[in-house]
Amino acid sequence: MKLDDIVASVRGLHGEQFLLAERDVSISLKGRMDERIEVPTTRAIMMGRFYELLTRGLFGGKLGDVYHVRAADEEVIVRPDVVDTVHKRLFECKAICSGQSGTLLDTQINGYMAFAAEKPEYDISFVFYRHVLHGIKGKWEGTARELFRDLARDTAYVVVLPFQMVLDLHDPTKGSTKYIYRYDGQTEFDCCSCLRSSALTKLLVNPEEVLQEMGLSYQIERRMAVGCCVQGNRVRDFPVVYVREKFNQKLLLEDEVPF
User: Fold this and answer.
1) CA nearest to 98, candidates 154, 43, 143
2) Whole-angstrom distance, CA of residue 167 vs CA of residue 196
3) Are 131 and 148 in contact (CB under 8 A)?
């Protein structure tokens, strides 16, 4: 079944709207929007920027910052994509095309572990966007403006996971091997866990089953993001699956926090 058909089959479960922090998110890209993007890596970077802006629209905050934290006797650099210092929240965004897996780099996970140990007052969430725009690192051609237009059209849904659940998925000893597989490269920067495409689909269709099979207990919220705009591009309405801690004492009042 095509991803768009899967999303359509669950839209009825997402009847309530997500309360957007910012409806129309834009930043100055200094004339780069109309430059043709020839290098595939640059396309991937611009795609990341689109989803960073969309995350800011959903949750508020500002685009990423750089933090220097200690891990054992080493300094670790952590670069979250979106930071909300008011409500003490960090967001790490992942853009994953239909049929592909999501990458959880060991170095990145270890960095967030060090950050969480040093700054436990912050909530850390990983934001997994699924889209159906194929060929970003291959046959796709166009400008940044055209890329943003296509991503606004082809974003399918988003799953938001608390960092502790990401850690559980990242650790194969926690019963996550049905949902992830390991890749160990020649250097520490190549080692990662890969979140299977089927797992990303299951987190949309039946996240309760994922939690049950892994012995986890979280609160699951389903909403529909309606009316988001990025750089003037109206993003098609998309389902949001928000998994978060139960009885989180740090959750603020509904009129203070978007959602």
Assistant:
1) 154
2) 15
3) no
